[in-house]
Specification:
By secondary structure, the protein is α+β, with helices and mostly antiparallel strands. It is built from five helices and five strands. A hairpin with a 2-residue loop joins strand 2 and strand 3.
């Protein structure tokens, strides 16, 4: 069995995407779900203060090839890896592609950051960015669970 690999990167959101970030995220997710599922990639993308931050998990050559495609995507400017290494387990296994734009109501997530400091994930410690992504994942799962509970 091939080793699991996780790459976390940050990129500036292209100005054309910032005009309608919700539509841009929907387009990214819709296209990536099928592609990532077929490639065995799990992923979570977060948009915040003009940045995309994303974790990609899967086999190393597949993840690195996907990052190259993302770096060439005009919706992403200056994509830079924050960390890339073997991983013990998938942290974002539920999603072939999950995404969330953080807003003022995301207190649990934003508490992981310093709200008074400018947000620049390329200057943040790797553990801070990983905590941001895992906090988003946990909050997203709680929300989905609550919604499913209401539907039952």
């Amino acid at each position: 069995m091939a080793a699991l690999y996780r790459l976390i990167y940050a990129s500036r959101i292209a100005p054309s995407c910032q005009d309608d970030l919700k539509a841009a995220l929907m387009d990214i997710v819709t296209r990536a779900i099928v592609r990532n599922r077929a490639a065995g990639i799990s992923s979570l993308l977060v948009a915040h203060r003009g940045w995309f931050v994303q974790a990609l998990e899967g086999r190393k050559p597949v993840v690195e090839a996907m990052f190259e495609k993302i770096a060439a995507d005009p919706r992403h400017h200056h994509a830079l890896p924050i960390s890339a290494d073997r991983a013990e387990a998938r942290l974002f296994a539920p999603w072939s592609m999950g995404a969330r734009a953080l807003m003022g109501g995301d207190e649990a997530v934003l508490a992981a950051l310093n709200p008074r400091a400018p947000f620049d994930p390329t200057r943040a410690p790797e553990r801070t960015i990983l905590r941001l992504l895992t906090t988003v994942a946990e909050a997203h799962w709680r929300t989905l669970g609550e919604q499913q509970g209401l539907a039952a």
